[in-house]
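ESCALATION

Customer reports they have been waiting on this structure for their group meeting. Please prioritize. Original submission:
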Amino acid sequence: MTVPVSAAPTFPYVMENYAIIIYEFLLELYVFYVLFSQGLTRKKYFAARVAVGLAAMLVAGYGAMTLYHFIGSTVWGRVLIYFALFALSVVHFRLCFDESLWMTLFCCDMAYASQNLIYKLFLTLWCFLLDVGFSPREWQYKLIYYAFYAVGVVVMYFLLIRRTRRYMLRRRRDYRTIVVSLVIIAVTVILCSVEDVTFAQLSAGRENLFDDPLLYVIRQAGNLFSIVCCMIVLAYLSGLLEKDDLREELKYLQYNAAQMKQQYEISRDTIEQINIKCHDMRHKVRGMLAGGTSDGALEQELREAINIYDANIRTGNKTIDVILTEKSLYCEKHGIKLSCMVDGEKLSFMREDDLYCLFGNIVDNAAEAVGALADVDKRVINLTCKLRGGMAVIEEENYYEGDLKFKDGLPQTTKKDKMYHGFGVRSIRMIARLYGGDMTASADGGVFRLRVILSTDGRGS
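Update from on-call: job pushed to the front of the queue and completed.
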């Protein structure tokens, strides 16, 4: 959109304006290509591919500029020009990155919708300013436009791109999503071209003058239509991507719970065998002592061996007994003190696999945190379970070091590979909500606190 001039425009001036329109479009589009492509796998000779591709796009832009002069005043001519430029940019993107066609179309689709959204938002504002009597010079128009675009890019990055890119990098494949978004964008380009050409004919060279209210309404209606379509594409793509990611995460949590159930069954059998053996050994020691035969070294060795039997934790719930006994043996081996005051009978309404997953994750996360502490006196885990007001309340406390950050009420994993870690606390919260409760976590003064509240009525809705 350019500022009108009083004299009839010359051919060089017209071509210069067409060049500005085409190359500004490509520049704005490629800015979003750069943002959406961060983290994608680059092909060999990436820099050379980018340079050659940009050179080719400059040549294509010159051809589009020439076409704009001859057919840019028609609807299908304008549609052809922008579709051709977009298609060529998709080819360039595909040649630079070693990604699937789905990933290529996804990035290009999101980039085009983002570019068009910011441009149409600016046109809406600009038409309003012109309608209220603002008469800018051309340099003022450019300054305001570039400033608006820069702010728009920053806002889009923090509100959409940064979050979407995290899910995008997991390589979800849903071609229906891309097809639908491409159709919406195509409809947007076609209808907006109809609106632009129709408005240009009605305004008869007075594009920026809105003395006729009907012209202002037509122009703003077209801008708002484009804005709505672009927002639909962005919301649709990012929303489905996030939904697919949550679905995959739920599958992982369910798999994790199944694995913990299997581990529980193995641990239960193992601990039962240990208890039997230790019980038999205790009777043998007593019999040896009663018979008058004693070997001091052997006696001490046997006593230490059967002390494992005394490590059994009895809570009134066999499942919890197995879990905490297993975890206490692990903690003892690694110099961690596990203090338990758990009334397991109050959790009899829970399934065995849910119990194992819940307590297993609670203790495992705590053991990992305190196991990294240099001060051995702080390697302590306090675990309690009580009944309060008809709700079973599980509380855990442990020391920690470092900067613990929270997001959506959950502590974030400190491991570098965040994509495949941090499911433990999410499993805990999932189970808590499954039983009509919830989970809260806090960290203050070097102490991490976890609270899980469960409804004793059983599973929630």
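Sent to customer with the following note: The chain has two domains: 11-253, 312-461.
Escalation resolved.
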